[in-house]
Amino acid sequence: MPLLTQRIPDENDYCLVASLDNVRNLSTILKAIHFREHATCFATKNGIKVTVENAKCVQANAFIQAGIFQEFRVQEESVTFRINLTVLLDCLSIFGSSPVPGTFTALRMCYQGYGYPLMLFLEEGGVVTVCKINTQEPEETLDFDFCSTNVINKIILQSEGLREAFSELDMTSEVLQITMSPDKPYFRLSTFGNAGSSHLDYPKDSDLMELFHCNETQVNRSVGCHLVMKYMIRNEDGQICFVEYYCCPDEEVPDS
Amino acid sequence: MKFRAKIVDTACLNHFTRVSNMIAKLAKTCTLRISPDKLNFILSDRVANGGVSMWCELEQENFFSEFQMEGVSAENNEIYLELTSENLSRALKTAQNARALKIKLTNKHFPCLTVSIELLSVSSSSRVVTHDIPVKVIPRKLWKDLQEPTVPDADVSIYLPVLKTMKSVVEKMKNISNHLIIEANLNGELNLKIETELVCVTTHFKDLGNPPLASENASQDRNLEQMAEVHIDIRKLLQFLAGQQVNPTKATCRPTELPLGSTLGGHIYCGLVCRASHVESGCSLNSMNDDHRSAAHVQLTLQQVSL
Prior knowledge:
Chain A: Its main location: nucleus. Chain A: Keywords: DNA damage, DNA repair, Nucleus. The complex is a heterodimer of chains A (256) and B (307). With 256 residues, chain A is mainly β. Helices cover 12% and strands 43% of the residues of chain A. Chain A is elongated. Chain A starts with a helix and ends with a strand. Mean pLDDT of chain A is 82; it is low at 1-7. Chain B folds into 2 domains: 2-146, Proliferating Cell Nuclear Antigen (Box); 158-301, Proliferating Cell Nuclear Antigen. In chain B, a hairpin with a 7-residue loop joins strand 17 (282-288) and strand 18. The interface between A and B is medium-sized, with 19 and 20 residues.
């Protein structure tokens, strides 16, 4: 990418330098967690973690490992900054949101450190766009100490099936109730709306179920008690990135 | 005052429809000027700050097989009508596979432009669809405000890049700011810039090429790398880009000299005019259709926004 390298004044000044041949490998993942304006970026030599939080209730994390990038260098132990995710996404998709098959936009991302803006160099078909986005003080993000020994129930589902279910949820219901149990109904999504209550059941031997480990019956209202939803997203080059959502409970419903 | 005209050629009809669609996208209300040789669609926005003015010219003989007009008087052999652009483009939608299209000025309780479209039915008998578009006749005393804009010599003229890329970029930039800076030089370089407190985004286009400037003197003195800069309202530019229904092979900037009917391919040109007085500064975009036979020339002038 000769066009892009010409523009960097001095590589050693930057504490984070990352290059991608296809910017969509990054923008798709970030879109998945774009439910708030701001995000915190945390980079180590292993990759970048981008965190978005909503009122200490929901936290989403996107992990983009160093291996996804064609070039990835972090000078210090870790680099952290807060940035406007809406603006970042607008910049990453500056050459258009709908991809034309066969065309790729290359990205080079550089950060000089505390107080400096994040520099983005994007190139498509010989046209170069340079973006300078101001960064902010990183904010403390909640640390959900989720260690596997505390896990009571764990389910792995193919997300396509869940997506249909979520799109059909009765929005007049104030809460979403999730039931996980070693006995019937195994995994149930329930809503209580104006027209009545509705239940979506996934049997444990369903084709969509990849893993079903339930030790106790748990019924939690709203997007659950320390419920973690972890997604594996495959990008255009077939590489895998992870996005996870941590949710705090509205209320826990005793077994009924 | 009389006006009647007829189009029988399908290509001419399609072209006329495309021009009308483009006008409808650019201006809600416009003026139609009818003279013995031409038709003009005019929009003049007297707001100096960030305003838009548009001048579209069609050579009558490139479109119409029959064309008769009689202006207000012998010395002022022209007709100026104000109409809602969408009414015309909607009427022309009916003319997709028409055999013939007739337009005439009529009076049906109020002045109208009556568009009659002759369509062939499956049974090969014809039927006629008529649209009456209400118009307002513009009095002589207001004609002076609707004259062809004199385009001042541009400081820089440049060929525009592939419109598709430019449109994608401008659309995204609009999400960030309404204030767009266009910079260009005589070295074929064009930059689109937006700057806010939070972010600066600059897109660099290179190797675009510059057509010869209208005034040779201006180009002699100017340093090739020196950028001319104008600040415009991004939404107006986007309206122009969105309205482009032609796929130009090259976009150029030559505000005054490009002859109509040129076969060089569709042209979109951008002239940057920068003067000491910001009010005069602006960006002039010119678009011309490819078809040698039926050329339409549209000029859109965007006034600089206050800095």
